[in-house]
Specification:
Its main location: membrane. It is found in: Membrane. This is Receptor ligand binding region domain-containing protein. The structure is a single chain. With 84 residues, the chain is an alpha+beta fold. It is elongated, with a radius of gyration of 17 Å. The chain is built from two helices and four strands. The strands form two sheets. The chain has a two-stranded antiparallel ribbon. Strands 3-4 form a two-stranded antiparallel sheet. The protein has a single domain, classed as Response regulator (Rossmann fold, 3-Layer(aba) Sandwich). Helix 1 crosses helix 2. The longest helix is centred in the first third of the chain and has 17 residues.
């Protein structure tokens, strides 16, 4: 599951980068309080993503940026067997 989630995340970011060719990145400093000038546009491109990934349909809430329609089942191994 971790590998599939990571694959889908990298794919979404790579598509956003490809759609924004004029984006440039110069060296950034950790103690800098100024936001990245392309950050808002880059996040908008990610929020617009629609893709059928390894973990299912990938879409994002336009307001908060969280992934929508996404469920994970947590499975635990108990003495009686698997438990959801």
């Amino acid at each position: 599951t971790d590998a599939a989630l990571m694959y889908d995340a990298v794919h979404v970011v790579s598509v956003a980068v490809q759609q924004f060719p004029q984006m440039t990145v110069s060296s950034l400093q950790c103690n800098r309080h100024k936001p990245w000038r392309f950050g808002t546009r880059f996040m908008s491109l990610i929020k617009e993503a629609h893709w059928e990934g390894l973990t299912g349909r990938i879409t994002f809430n336009k307001t908060n940026g969280l992934r929508t329609d996404f469920d994970l089942d947590v499975i635990s191994l108990k003495e009686e067997g698997l438990e959801k």
